[in-house]
Amino acid sequence: MFGPAPGAGGGTLSARILEAEQQLSGQALEGSEFQRDLQRALAAPPHAISPKYFYDTEGSRLFDRICELPEYYPTRTERALLAEHAGAIAAVAGTGADLVEFGAGSCSKVRLLLPALQPRRYLPIDISTEHLVDAAVGLRREHPGLHVQPVAGDYTAALRLPDPLPGARRVGFFPGSTIGNFTPEEALQFLRGAARLLRGGGLLLGADLVKDPNVLHAAYNDAQGVTAAFNLNLLARANRELGTAFDLDRFWHSAFYNAAQQRIEMHLVSRCRQQVAVDGHSYVLEAGQALHTENSYKFSIEGLRRLAVQAGFRPGPAWTDPGNLFSVHWLHAPE
Ligand code: AVJ
After folding, report:
1. Does residue 216's CB lie within 6 angstroms of at least one atom of ligand 1?
2. Is residue 137 part of a domain?
3. How far is the CA of 106 from the centre of ligand 1 (A)?
4. Into how many domains does the chain fold?
5. Disulfide check for 331: which of 78, 182, 310, 313 has CB 3.0–4.6 Å away?
6. Could you tell me the distance, in angstroms and rounded to a whole number, from the CA of residue 67 to the centre of ligand 1?
7. Nearest to 332, CA basis, from 191, 224, 153
């Protein structure tokens, strides 16, 4: 293991060492945690596993394809909002900030903000190391002057970030309605942590809105079956990484809107009674038994602002599209 990485950036040696170090620590931790969480989900109710396990390299690729689907409105709607309001966002967030993105993926949305926001540094955090490093390399090539320092890790867990840049305000960026993956209690906890981390700056947050359930249903049951492949990739990933032998043909993708909870739920449903094994432990799945793989909560603008206030933020402007499909919020984090 390398020693502590100095706060260097660009394509310098220390930045590359930092990346290498994080690739190693990131992957090692994740493997065993995945096995344990999968075993827990199979063993007993509520038969649920965190959606963070979708995002290995293949899953991140599938997610990027989801974002291009005609039925999946969130990405294109949020991108339009960011592009249209970049100037207004920079006016409230300020230029020259230390910009931290939670779950940066392909770092594609931040590109819409960079010209207006002109951050002093960009810290993309993501759980999919290979995908993140590729994205950071591409971003550096496009913006040679930008200080990009990727952090491979799970931002839902305690995460060590590089020290803040002296004198620079921290601005958080959490787009894509990824906040919808948290339960309301987890979302509050995440926002509380973010308000602390970003004090004196703020958070730019994307949140999907409650709408016609038919529109929601189509977005998670696309005609090409990419969302189904994304969901099933959880089992494919287990086969690759944990040496399991899940037969993907024995599961189907289920996604539906749970109106009472204001969320889309995704499940992998066993098509038949079957026995599966993970690291020597076997489990019987009944026909129709579901493994709950994701919640995607939907919000109202006011509901999200209330949650932000509870977490210690002072909500600023919120931007939405004419169809009220999606919202982007500026949340000021007091000192
Ligand atoms: C990345 C959590 C925002 O909930 O819409 C897309 C993930 N799951 N299609 C979402 C997802 C199925 C996505 N988030």
Report:
1. no
2. yes
3. 14
4. 1
5. 313
6. 9
7. 191
Name the one residue in this structure whose structure tokens are 């933020």. 313
- Ligand 1 pocket test: pick from 296, 297, 328 the residue with the most ligand atoms within 8 Å of its Cβ: 296
Residue 33 lies in a domain: no
Find out whether the beta carbon of 176 lies less than 6 Å from any atom of ligand 1: yes
pLDDT in tens, the chain (335 residues): 222 232 333 334 344 434 544 444 444 445 489 999 999 999 999 999 999 999 999 999 999 999 999 999 999 999 999 999 999 999 999 999 999 999 988 889 999 999 999 999 999 999 888 889 999 999 999 998 899 999 998 887 767 788 888 999 999 999 999 999 999 999 999 999 999 999 999 999 999 999 999 999 999 999 999 999 999 999 999 999 999 999 999 999 999 999 999 999 999 999 999 999 999 999 999 999 999 999 999 999 999 999 999 999 999 999 999 999 999 999 999 99
Q: Can you state the percent helix, strand and coil of the chain, rounding each to 5? A: 40, 25, 35
* Residue with the two structure tokens 């995704």: 266
In angstroms, rounded to a whole number, what is the distance separating the alpha carbons of residues 82 and 104? 15
Please give the model's pTM, rounded to 2 decimal places. Answer: 0.89
What is the CA(264)–ligand 1 centre distance, in A? 9
66 lines ligand 1 (CB under 6 A): yes
